[in-house]
Specification:
There is one protein chain. The protein is α/β, with parallel strands linked by helices. It has helices at 3-6, 19-30, 44-54, 70-79, 95-104, 116-127, 135-144, 160-170, 175-182, 186-200, 205-214, 217-223, and strands at residues 10-15, 35-41, 58-62, 85-90, 108-111, 132-133. The protein has a 6-stranded parallel sheet with strand order 2-1-3-4-5-6, with helices on both faces. Helix 4 packs parallel to helix 5, helix 8 crosses helix 12 (217-223) and helix 9 crosses helix 10. The radius of gyration is 18 Å and the shape is globular.
Length: 225
């Protein structure tokens, strides 16, 4: 995260049709010196009014809402090239919807019931121009995949360092954390990640995580070390 971002108070808009959940999220964020809740929306339609009114940095939004769902809101935002970072709140039973959202391209995904630390990290990471996927959700995605014994041809284009970086990305580690683990700079990791995404034809870290899981990147890396 740049110094400019680190000095910026992150403006968060909360969108959820349950008042109790909105109040709980507000209470959590209220304790953080670098965040402020600028507005609330109880349905998908209200989101657009609040976005125009408050210009938030991060939209913390339930994936299932009345009038207009989180998926519909996300589609509309992406089509309009809106720059707000979208962090979706979801539940385990929404696997199909989560995969749909990943295809459209939200910046982050948090499971309802995850820890306060996960939520706050997710907000900070998407604000800092990183994608974020809840570690619990990564575990859930591991459970949904069916292993394919044939190694993906694309993986053969990746070197040992590439596989290692992709493995750490799939564990939810930030560029800074991966750099520390591999004794490389954060910028080097970011540049390598961009190149890896191009090779495996994914858009972001979330899609890269799913790719790594489905193609057993960790197993492949460990097998060769």
């Amino acid at each position: 995260m740049s110094n400019e971002n680190s000095l910026h108070t992150i403006k968060v808009l909360i969108a959820d049709d349950h008042d109790l959940i909105r109040q709980g999220l507000k209470s959590i964020i209220a304790y953080e010196k670098d965040m402020v809740v600028t507005g609330e929306a109880a349905n998908g339609e209200e989101v657009f009014t609040m976005l125009e009114l408050y210009k938030p940095d991060v939209l913390l939004m339930d994936i299932n809402m009345p009038i207009m769902s989180g998926i519909e809101v996300l589609k509309k935002l992406k089509l309009a090239n809106n720059t707000v970072k979208v962090l979706l709140l979801t539940v385990e039973s929404d696997k199909k919807t989560i995969l749909q959202a990943i295809e459209i391209g939200a910046e982050g995904y948090i499971l309802k019931g995850s820890s306060t630390e996960e939520l706050l990290e997710g907000i900070r990471r998407v604000f800092g121009d990183e994608n974020y996927i809840d570690k619990s959700l990564v575990t859930l995605l591991f459970k949904r995949v069916t292993h394919n014994d044939s190694e993906n041809k694309v993986l053969k284009e990746l070197g040992s360092r590439d596989l290692e970086i992709l493995m750490y990305i799939s564990k939810g580690m930030s560029n800074k954390e991966i750099g520390a683990q591999m004794f490389l700079s954060e910028k080097t990791i970011k540049n390598n990640a961009t190149r890896i995404f191009r090779i495996i034809e994914v858009r972001d870290r979330v899609q890269a995580t799913i790719y790594a899981i489905e193609n057993r990147v960790e197993e492949l890396f460990l097998k060769n070390h």
